[in-house]
Write a structure and sequence with these properties.
The protein is α/β, with parallel strands linked by helices and about 290 residues long. About 35% of the residues lie in helices and about 15% in strands. Bound molecules: adenosine-2'-5'-diphosphate.
Length: about 290
């Protein structure tokens, strides 16, 4: 089987490199002892794991990595600070807790998970700036190698006045929900865009345009959608609990979508597969264990 060149990287503006395909851990629950899923992903060659304090997956990721016997430095670990923890001391304790669960003394990437706590928060700009200033300090202290954000739109970036800028923005991105304005802004500002739910929470896997293009290239619908991200310069965070699908999602190098394919995928009806979440108005309130 041909493995996607998992050693391929995107270059971050701070000089660090990030593996070009991430493994998503939303939906993997520590309390269900799902570290075997992480072990399978490692066996398939994944080294970039995307976690969050919210997901409740960090213990499983830490255990999976530890039991692999592979050196910590071989992995790229992301975690996120949840929107209710944006105050400086809460950010610090959130990160300490994440590090403990992940069994490491640094993360490769720390993200602000959501730009605002709730739509009524009149002080969201102050909170955001305080949070990112704290991130900058954590980077100086060596607990974090790179710092970024998630679910940011252009006006959130414009509200952020810190001297050091985020190097990553992780957003929902797939045909039907491409958020072109913020993607263009990030490209201009040298911010790597990562795609969460690149398969549109599986809704796009049965889309007739996606299936037609998949048949043309003799690949799966998921492979088309992941390749669509990469060819648009966006880093996909792929997630699957099944080892065969993990392998399939990591095998992306043997075909190329052409300009026509990319256009047809971009033309898929707006909001197909959209999560209905919006950074300012439809803010998830769930905490770990609520899912
Ligand atoms: P499973 O864990 O059973 O593989 P998204 O990342 O857009 O949120 O989509 C994730 C969903 O897509 C999960 O339900 C996952 O289910 C499914 N999925 C992931 N990879 C594939 C694949 N290669 N083929 C079919 N379904 C997939």
């Amino acid at each position: 089987m041909e493995i996607f060149a998992l050693e391929n990287n995107f270059q971050l503006a701070d000089g660090n490199a990030i593996p070009a395909l991430g493994f998503g851990t939303f939906g993997i629950f520590d309390r269900l002892h799902q570290e075997n899923i992480i072990a399978d992903a490692i066996a398939c060659g994944y080294r970039h794991f995307d976690t969050a304090s919210l997901y409740g997956s960090e213990i499983s990721v830490g255990l999976g990595i530890k039991s692999s016997g592979i050196a910590r430095e071989e992995f790229f670990l992301t975690t996120k600070v949840w929107k209710d923890d944006m105050e400086s001391s809460r950010i610090r304790s959130s990160l300490e807790s994440s590090l403990k669960k992940l069994q490491t003394d640094y993360v490769d990437l720390l993200l602000i998970h959501w730009p605002r706590c709730n739509s009524a928060d009149a002080q969201w700009i102050e909170h955001l700036n305080e949070a990112f200033e704290t991130f900058i300090l954590l980077k100086k202290e060596g607990k974090v190698k790179s710092i970024g954000v998630s679910n940011f739109l252009v006006h959130h970036f414009e509200a952020l006045k810190t001297a050091e800028r985020p190097v990553v923005n992780q957003i929902e991105y797939h045909p039907g929900y491409m958020q072109q304005e913020v993607v263009d802004y990030c490209k201009k500002e040298n911010i790597v865009v990562e795609a969460w739910s690149p398969l549109g929470r599986a809704a796009l896997l049965t889309d007739k345009t996606v299936l037609k293009i998949a048949a043309k290239h003799k690949v799966s619908a998921a492979q088309v959608l992941l390749k669509f991200c990469l060819e648009n310069g966006v880093l996909p965070i792929a997630k699957s609990t099944d080892i065969k699908r993990m392998q399939q999602n990591a095998s992306l190098m043997h075909f190329m979508l052409d300009a026509n394919d990319l256009q047809e995928l971009s033309d898929i009806k707006q909001n197909t597969g959209w999560s209905q979440e919006h950074p300012d108005f439809a803010i998830p309130s769930a905490r770990v264990g609520d899912f």
